[in-house]
Specification:
Chain lengths: 417, 417
Amino acid sequence: MALKKKPVTGMKDIMPKEMEIRDYLISLIKETYKSYGFISMETPCVEHIENLTSKQGGDNEKLIFKILKRGEKLKLDVAKEESDLVDGGLRYDLTLPLARYYANHMNELPSPFKATQIGSVWRADRPQKGRFRQFTQCDIDILGEGSILSEIELILATTTMLGKIGFSNFTVNINDRNILKAMAVYSGFKDEDFDDVCIILDKLDKIGEEKVAEELCDLGYSTKESDTYLSLFKEVTRDITGIRFLKTKLAGFLDEKTADNLEMIIDSVERAKEAEFSVAFDPTMVRGQSYYTGTIFEIAIEGFGGSVAGGGRYDKMIGKFTGQDTPACGFSIGFERIVMILLESGYEIPTKKEKVAYLLEKGLSDQEIITVLNRGKADREAGKQVLIVYMKKNKRFQKEQLAEEGYEKIIDCYKEN
Amino acid sequence: MALKKKPVTGMKDIMPKEMEIRDYLISLIKETYKSYGFISMETPCVEHIENLTSKQGGDNEKLIFKILKRGEKLKLDVAKEESDLVDGGLRYDLTLPLARYYANHMNELPSPFKATQIGSVWRADRPQKGRFRQFTQCDIDILGEGSILSEIELILATTTMLGKIGFSNFTVNINDRNILKAMAVYSGFKDEDFDDVCIILDKLDKIGEEKVAEELCDLGYSTKESDTYLSLFKEVTRDITGIRFLKTKLAGFLDEKTADNLEMIIDSVERAKEAEFSVAFDPTMVRGQSYYTGTIFEIAIEGFGGSVAGGGRYDKMIGKFTGQDTPACGFSIGFERIVMILLESGYEIPTKKEKVAYLLEKGLSDQEIITVLNRGKADREAGKQVLIVYMKKNKRFQKEQLAEEGYEKIIDCYKEN
């Protein structure tokens, strides 16, 4: 019986043209982050199922590819439920494995630990256009540093990288979960409803103010709370002035330090940035992950819906492994999104070498072949990329195809006699 | 409850020092193979369980990490055996997925298709020192080219890459399964015993001639066959002369073209090589994988047991997917072995940048911090790698550690007042 040709449902084979962009992007990312003092690291793709289902991953935990126990450990006859059958799963993000890694190797790592990770993650999402069940994530994190130096450096490194691939005029939006909280409490929402209030607020862009107000009332509040809440957002400008406004307005609800920190992050990023972009305060930004404890940030590019990067502070996750909280802050770029944007815009990688193709006539002597091999060697030494292939019957078509693949120099090699 | 800190059994966290070598090696490999006209490609880590258990992978098929069906497809209550529970598995090599990829995308790919793949593979082997259940493979393959141009280019590209990381005086050993077969048949072994004869011959290095002779007799042959067989190996020199000797000796058993091809491969590699190494004919080399159909080759380095690369021709695999045989030949380097050799020999990657660290005194003003950020920016623009961290109480120890991490310039930044 013939084997299956298609990749498994929801995952994709990566074609050479896309691969060239991915390879280039990865090398650029690694180089840029390294220049900011970030260190490369890697964890296995398989994680303990206990860690993956420990409620650090929110909804992603419903989407885990689970791995069957092996050998004697698999007791199919007595297994009652799924959890009896599995002992591992494919990681759904790089943050949880990073926390485990740090907990495991803390004493061998620099402090603070500035980490770069690029790797595949898996989520058994419903297949849909442009979203795949295996995709690459690309994170930088600073562990063990509680000050906003982390936020500043994460934003500078990420934006520098985006600048290097030609992105400009994008916006870094920044907020703090403590501001979100203070605004909610100031407006009369209870602490225990904070998560629900955030979920509703997060839909502001999509469903509009009226619907948000409705849903807030559905939580059991009067229009007073939702009115106060929503009018706050209207009063706040999306800049340092807005932060200062809230610092005064939310006095007693918001730690002044939170506002000062946000202001300093925006100011210093603006004044030390290496790419062209702006930084804005966005009091409506929520970000899904429940593990964030402080600042949160995203990058939006004009003309592309959604964000191309996102991150924030999560000071409570490492403590789940070590029993002791460790400050942590990370920024993750939407690798697959960026690849798609570059691919669709016809991006040409800037490091292309001259490409030379030698076409060998069938029946060349051994000596003639060796001569071509040595010409190829000389070309490579001169920095060129060399392809040596046999001439096809339809040589014209072959040359057209090679030209399409970027071979600008094509040399026919005929036999002498 | 605290989460698990250790990686899953048999898999490893990769530490920064090793990671630096891996990153460098991967970029060097990609660059070198690209200069030989190989194209980067990737398949998902998860494959159809049907493909993984189709007898293309030999013993590796016993070591598959299997993935549980999800949602409604998982019917635990009616599942009778393991295969009812799973629909995918983690790939155990890169060759089978490559064959699937080629079968799936043949019409969109150049012909011949010269592919580079670097990726993780998984085998649930018994954990042992230095061997892990997730490891990186790094393959080049040429699909759709039946001539020995494939073998020559695969060997040249691989050895060039090894030369670039400083390996020299290694040996490329080469053989052909058709020579193995002709020698066996010439000696009186039957066709149907060929695989068993090979398995025994493969142990020659380990168990010696006497034991091999014994085991051959155990197959039901007299000492005549084993004597003829083993004395053949003694007569053959490990060079082109040996190949010519066999061409005459095995006349009627061996296609002359096979001997001529081997001779041409050795000759042209010797005369077009870009690194320092030798090429030898090794008539005792078997290589495990049953899918090989012609030439087989390995690279051995003096002082390191086992091989650091291996490959060969497998003209029958793609036909399992397409119904039509396609010539194919590949060479895989032992990525993990090479990393270990480099790591243990204290290899220093040659592309290191100057590393500068700024130590910030606690309490620096916002303006002072921004000034340091801008000094870092200027350093990066000058090609340096910059770390900005807060000064610790034990500054001397901190500086020692930074020096160990390679920061040769460490700048104290004190507050002005």
